[in-house]
Specification:
Elements (H helix, E strand, L loop, with lengths): L15 H16 L10 E7 L6 E7 L1 E3 L2 E6 L11 E7 L2 E9 L3 H15 L1 H6 L16 E11 L1
Antiparallel strand pairs: 1-2, 1-5, 3-4, 4-7, 5-6, 6-7
Length: about 160
């Protein structure tokens, strides 16, 4: 299995401007009584900007392993989470505190890619750059995985 390939970093499924419309709608749905329609694969992540101090809340897909959440991004917002940063997630309708940090372990990243490919299907894997030209799981260039260790406290 390859960690990097000759392929280019995947592009977001939608133009950046579309996320300015879609993200607030998704945030609203994930906070509503209708959250269960989406919350088995999506949650909101709230963190503070390192430089601006501004509070950001974004919808993100996730994988959960016990008290640890994993997510990935192709965007630069992850830089706000370097060094282990307190965050709040809205997970299946509940606000929970945790600490987020980028994942550096290549073997873990490949394991997460395999799990994502199995759970979310080949179409998602291709769209997100998780399948190499040889059909093998890979971590696409420009992909950053984030680990959130939940502390079990309500936020």
């Amino acid at each position: 299995m390859t960690v990097q390939s000759q392929v280019q970093a995947p592009k977001p499924p939608l133009p950046k401007a579309a996320y300015r419309v879609i993200n607030p709608i998704m945030n609203m749905l994930l906070r509503s009584p209708l959250h269960s329609v989406l919350s088995n694969s999506l949650m909101t992540l709230t963190f503070q900007g390192r430089k601006s101090g501004k509070r950001y809340t974004i919808p993100v897909g996730y994988l959960q392993r016990s008290n640890t959440l994993y997510l990935f991004t192709h965007s630069s917002w992850w830089k706000n989470l370097q060094g282990g940063v307190p965050v709040t997630v809205r997970l299946r309708g509940q606000e929970v505190a945790g600490v987020a940090e980028p994942v550096q372990d290549t073997a873990l990243m490949l394991d997460l890619v395999r799990e994502l490919n199995t759970q979310r299907g080949e179409a998602m894997a291709k769209r997100m750059g998780f399948l190499g030209e040889d059909g093998q799981p890979m971590v696409a260039p420009g992909t950053v995985f984030i680990r959130i260790q939940l502390d079990g406290r309500a936020a």
